[in-house]
Amino acid sequence: MPSITADDVVKLFEEDVKARKRLAELLVSEPDVRLAIINAVIRDVATKSDVEGLKRDVFTHMSELRDRVSKLEGAFTQLVDRIGT
Q1: How far is CA 36 from its chain centroid?
Q2: Is 78 helix (H, G, I), strand (E, B) or coil?
Q3: Closest Cα to residue 41, out of 49, 33, 30?
Q4: Is 0.70 topped by the overall pTM?
Q5: Closest to 49 in 3D by CA, of 57, 40, 41
Q6: Contact between residue 23 and residue 12 where contact means Cβ atoms under 8 Å apart
Q7: Each residue's pLDDT expressed in tens, for the chain with a length of 85 residues
Q8: Sequence ranges of the domains in the chain
């Protein structure tokens, strides 16, 4: 009698959507397993605070870029005036 391997089990779940859903339901119904899944997912989720911080950084950098562009435009205008073109 042949023994079933982990790869065989994975292939069976890949082929059977209903069984895969049942397994997922079983896993999340176990408090310890559910907590482990939640903790694993949370590590990859951006929080509202993360997004707000990123937003502040982007606005800060955009403001700095506007200032630099403005200075470059002024310098370019002065250069054009000096050249007389």
Answers
A1: 20
A2: helix
A3: 33
A4: no
A5: 57
A6: no
A7: 679 999 999 999 999 999 999 999 999 999 999 999 999 999 889 989 999 999 999 999 999 999 999 999 999 999 999 998 6
A8: 1-45, 47-85
